[in-house]
């Protein structure tokens, strides 16, 4: 299939908008190279039109009306549920898709579902806070390690599965900090061998690679529309038996069969856990986004993004002042044959193994704070990337090799910040720069970023930046 990536790019109006970028002696209007897809993806015009069409043609509340608008809304909303099930390769006989508000909400639902089960939760040190903090509320949680290359330490996972009575292994399919893929198939086998269930936080994987959760025996899977070109809506894929046995996650309208003064009879899933009016239009557009991506082909998307990633990393590596955080895969992982990943033919670049990577990279520029770098990239290079700790403090602590003393210092800084003392540069905390690719990115976007990174590495930026409220900002004269 010959895919016209240029025409796909043209579907994104946001990429044509001009913003002031400093260069050639003054600010001029320039389009922005958007490389922050791991945070949220922009929405293509045809999906924006679909969104409007819903409101123009039939938008109404679902499940509760006998009029045309409600009937159509319900049909489309339920269709979206089926599309999501199909998109991730779910087992519809045994599992259900529950719509949620964002990935965090979906993961909180998962934590709720297993809270009364016997045993502990094992989460990896790689996790986004959204796949760690929800379990802490009502469960005992232990962490399993990542190795020096930022990969899951599968031996440590097995050791802890043996040591504890584990009910759930909660782990990211793809790290939102390094883009490293975990061997989901291997972890599912390990979890099941020791009687545990496995949950995959698929926030980063969903829009960028083929998925087949049934094939790999994944019990729970969470993903969100705002990371796959759709509006903010999310879902949890979960075993029906567990869903129907747990208390309603969000008790309220739409969750019951009947209510009497002395008795409440709850519906089965999915309604049981979707109290109140859901994000109807969001879910319908999520379904449309999935149909679109499927038509392009997830293998094609992965190949396209990884080719660009190879170029991005290759260019970053040419800048001596750039330190890239680990994107090297552990050889044991490389040899495993049970991955959820459909391997690409990109092969290995130097010490990189792209088979176990997604188009996302974390790096720093020598002696330049990430907050300053990201501001210069925005105002003087027209490149939009992210900086900070990416909601993964435990992983960042490992990657940045922070010791106890560093942590104590950061804790003091944060305590000061909480008291409103933020004016000095001493308050700056460590982190990384993160560039993440999407379906519409091209070499020109990467070139823009690389020009900016070189300019910063050579200390050739032109404007002044001031440190204010925890971040660098452009000084307006
Ligand atoms: C791996 C991972 N999990 C969870 C989340 C939280 O997603 P949301 O903002 O949809 O709650 C993110 C967001 O970046 C993420 O990258």
Counting DSSP E segments of at least 2 residues, the number of strands comes to 21
Low-confidence stretches: 329-352
At CATH level 2, the architecture of the largest domain is 3-Layer(aba) Sandwich
Radius of gyration: 23 Å
What shape does the CA trace take? globular
- The helix content is 25-40%
Structure, explained:
This protein is 36% helix and 19% strand. With 477 residues, the protein is an alpha/beta fold. The protein has 2 domains: 5-41 and 297-474, Aspartate Aminotransferase, domain 1 (Alpha-Beta Complex); 47-295, Aspartate Aminotransferase, domain 2. The strands form 7 sheets. Strands 4-10-9-8-7-5-6 form a 7-stranded mixed sheet, sandwiched between helices. The protein starts with a helix and ends with a strand. The structure holds pyridoxal-5'-phosphate. Pyridoxal-5'-phosphate (PLP) binds at residues 39, 102-104, 128, 130-131, 172, 176, 201, 203-204, 224, 234.
Protein traits:
globular; 15 helices; 21 strands; 7-stranded mixed β-sheet; 2 domains; Aspartate Aminotransferase, domain 1; binds pyridoxal-5'-phosphate; 4-stranded antiparallel β-sheet; Aspartate Aminotransferase, domain 2; alpha/beta
